[in-house]
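Internal ticket #5521
Category: modeling
Description: The requester needs a full-assembly model to guide mutagenesis choices. All entity lines are attached below as received. Residue total reported by intake: 284.
Assigned to: D.W.
Attached entities:
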Amino acid sequence: MEIDRRKVITALGGASVVELMNPEARAEALEDYLSQQLDAAMAAKLGVPQNTPTVAELEAQIETRPFRKGVGTLFAVGASTPFGNRVAGEANNVAKLPAMPAKPTLLDFYKLRFNPATHILQSADKALTSGMPEEIVLACLLHDSAHALMKADHGWWAAQLYEPYVSPKVTFAIRYHQALRFFPDPSVNYEYPILYNKIFGKDYVPPEYIKQAHDYARKHKFYMAARMVTVNDLYSFDPNHVVDPAKFTDIIGRHFKQPKEGLGYDNSAVAHMWRTIINPDVGL
Ligand SMILES: [Fe+2]
Ligand SMILES: [Fe+2]
């Protein structure tokens, strides 16, 4: 990143302010400035809108797109971000998907279908490095993975997708993170994400079923598991933090019941959902 000295000094409050800072404070202020610049550059790359729209303005955008914002990322180019804006340099058409092994494992999906799974991998890594229990790390790893299939109500879709293979605590954490993320919990320093004003609108009020799900989850014995997914959820973008899914091999091995026939072929109640992710190109 190129640094314009004058711009930096202005951003820090002017030359006289910078002069009064000791070297440590100066270094810290510069670091803050650079990270803000990086966030802004990344935000522009991801198509984050400059303005913060209202709910009505977001609704008016519906008829300006050939796809709906809730569509799974595998199904439409231009639907890869929650903003629904076409990102600079994005292809016009969907790409041919790589073949999957005959008996696919969860890690195969990370490599071949959820890729780039940056957000979920970084969330799981954050949980891992902050010493969270393994089931929480797994819940963080899985929490938004259903975006490939469907973004609308993704907590419920993902929980269903994993129900036969993980513990009820992990499923609960995945399902309810979707509702809890809108509600602060000062006991764990969780605040309403500022970014949501851009995604949902600055005057957004969550629908009744989300409020009810939040109230239900609050009183549940697994509340903190779901809450920890929101605490480790990332609402900023760091393209330089690359996490290899193989890092979670042991945790997956201990807490994910991989079917021997492969995901999609075990005749479970959700096998068809996995097959749809394997081959979303079937016409009918
Ligand atoms: Fe989520
Ligand atoms: Fe998330």
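Resolution: model delivered.
Comment from assignee: The CA atoms of residues 76 and 94 lie 6 Å apart.
Ticket closed.
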